[in-house]
């Protein structure tokens, strides 16, 4: 299985830290945030990774190169302007191929990786969900007996980690578009499974949360 890391965002919420450094390269516990993802993927036996880049793309490419230093082969999908999550994945599909792939938001920290064989039957997505953080109290989706829904009263938050089948994006025109509406449509069609992860997870979206993650990891988290 290949993996894709989403790393094309502008990092506006992380300013001023991202004024001169793209968010994926912000250091945490002695290494860039994105390197934690690369090391975890390699440990899981994944050796081909697609990374989409836009803002300060050259800095990220120069820092990671072809991935050889991490025991990986990195394919780069460069976006002239950010294409949002859906558009970014769609542009990268020629690099990802026709089989399901692991998708990771570059601005989260989590040790969870779903089973590469998580997709069953006609499913087009398998989502990792977590308990709602303080900054997102209402959550995103419900989860019942391994199936993701939009009707449960109790909601969980999408962790930014999933297994995606390219069929999820079938028929979409090129350009910028979000992934969320496609996921919601697939959920309505009973094509999305899920699991809850109860370990440590951080949406590293602000300088404050980056500092909290740094403290957590430095003190044996």
What does this structure look like?
The chain has about 220 residues and is an alpha/beta fold. It has a single domain (about 5-220), classed as Spore Coat Polysaccharide Biosynthesis Protein SpsA, Chain A (Alpha-Beta Complex), CATH 3.90.550. The protein contains five helices and 13 strands. It has helices at about 35-45, 55-65, 85-95, 180-190, 205-220, and strands at about 5, 25-30, 30, 50-55, 75-80, 100-105, 110, 125-130, 140-145, 145-150, 155-165, 190-195, 200-205. The strands form four sheets. A seven-stranded mixed beta sheet has the order 5-4-1-6-11-8-12. It has a two-stranded antiparallel ribbon with strand order 2-3. A two-stranded antiparallel ribbon has the order 7-13. The two termini are about 30 Å apart. InterPro entries: GlmU-like (IPR050065), MurU (IPR054790), NTP_transferase_dom (IPR005835), Nucleotide-diphossugar_trans (IPR029044). Pfam families: NTP_transferase.
Summarize the structure.
This protein is of the alpha/beta class and 221 residues long. It has 5 helices and 13 strands.
Task: Please specify the SSE layout and strand pairing.
Elements: E1 3-6, E2 27-28, E3 31-32, H1 33-43, E4 48-53, H2 57-64, E5 73-78, H3 84-96, E6 101-105, E7 108-110, E8 125-130, E9 142-144, E10 147-149, E11 157-164, H4 180-188, E12 192-196, E13 201-203, H5 207-218
Domain Nucleotidyl transferase: 2-144
GO molecular function: nucleotidyltransferase activity
Protein name: Nucleotidyltransferase family protein
């Amino acid at each position: 299985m290949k993996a894709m890391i989403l790393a094309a965002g502008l990092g506006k919420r992380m300013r001023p830290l991202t004024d001169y450094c793209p968010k994926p390269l912000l250091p945490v516990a002695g290494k860039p945030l994105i390197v934690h993802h690369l090391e975890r993927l390699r440990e899981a036996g994944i050796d081909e990774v697609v990374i989409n880049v836009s803002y300060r793309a050259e800095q990220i490419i120069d820092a990671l190169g072809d991935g050889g230093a991490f025991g990986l082969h990195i394919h780069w999908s460069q976006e002239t302007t950010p294409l949002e999550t859906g558009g970014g994945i769609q542009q990268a599909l020629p690099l990802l191929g026709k089989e399901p792939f692991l998708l990771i938001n570059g601005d989260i920290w989590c040790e969870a990786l779903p089973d590469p064989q998580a997709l069953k039957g006609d499913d087009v997505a398998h989502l990792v969900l977590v308990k709602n953080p303080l900054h997102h109290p209402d959550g995103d989706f419900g989860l019942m007996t391994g199936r993701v829904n939009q009707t449960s009263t109790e909601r969980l938050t999408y962790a930014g980690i999933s297994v995606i089948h390219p069929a999820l994006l079938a028929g979409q025109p090129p350009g910028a578009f979000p992934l969320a509406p496609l996921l919601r449509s697939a959920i309505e069609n009973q094509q999305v499974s899920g699991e809850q992860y109860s370990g440590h997870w951080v949406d590293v979206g602000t300088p404050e949360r980056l500092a909290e993650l740094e403290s957590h990891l430095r003190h044996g988290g």
